[in-house]
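User: Could you go from structure to sequence for me? I need the amino acid at each position, not a summary. Structure tokens:
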């Protein structure tokens, strides 16, 4: 994979990584607030493993909200580590702090794709007329969001590779004018 040299054709990958981490934190906080302030909606929570009564009990106990909140708290932690790693690289190399974001970013992208496809297919298979429109919006909007997410992940990954390569060169391999 070729490395990106800029983010959005105008900023460095370092700046793009800081923006990506900041966006992750801001969006996670907004989502946590919305999850707990909004009323429960009429979209059902389905596991497809257990019966409908068990799914309803889990939903009534706010188990899906709690699981999502915990996941978003870990997202805030990982994005914070990313920002710290990017800001600390000018003083000492800390590429290992970027690894959780780089690794989990791929897992989240795969999970997002599965979620988009599952939700849109489920809505297409429902017999409710409005659900076809929802399914199309979820499919198109979700795929656009996935492309933006993958681009920002590629910016962070490119910056991670640059830092890692610089760390591997070591202190004594650098040219004398770069010490």
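Assistant: Here is the amino acid at each position, in order:
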């Amino acid at each position: 994979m070729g490395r990106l040299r800029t983010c959005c054709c105008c900023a460095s990958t370092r700046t793009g990584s800081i923006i990506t981490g900041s966006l992750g934190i801001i969006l996670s906080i907004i989502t946590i607030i919305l999850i707990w302030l909004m009323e429960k909606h009429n979209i059902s929570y389905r596991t497809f493993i257990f019966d409908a009564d068990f799914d309803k009990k889990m939903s009534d106990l706010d188990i899906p909200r709690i699981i999502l909140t915990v996941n978003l708290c870990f997202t805030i932690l990982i994005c914070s580590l990313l920002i710290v790693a990017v800001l600390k690289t000018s003083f000492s190399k800390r590429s290992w702090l970027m690894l959780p974001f780089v690794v989990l970013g791929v897992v989240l992208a795969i999970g997002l794709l599965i979620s988009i496809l599952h939700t849109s297919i489920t809505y297409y298979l429902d017999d409710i007329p409005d659900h076809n429109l929802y399914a199309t919006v979820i499919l198109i909007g979700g795929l656009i969001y996935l492309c933006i997410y993958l681009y920002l992940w590629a910016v962070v990954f490119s910056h991670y590779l640059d830092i890692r390569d610089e760390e591997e060169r070591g202190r004594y391999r650098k040219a004398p004018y770069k010490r």
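One structural detail worth keeping in mind: The chain has a mean pLDDT of 81.
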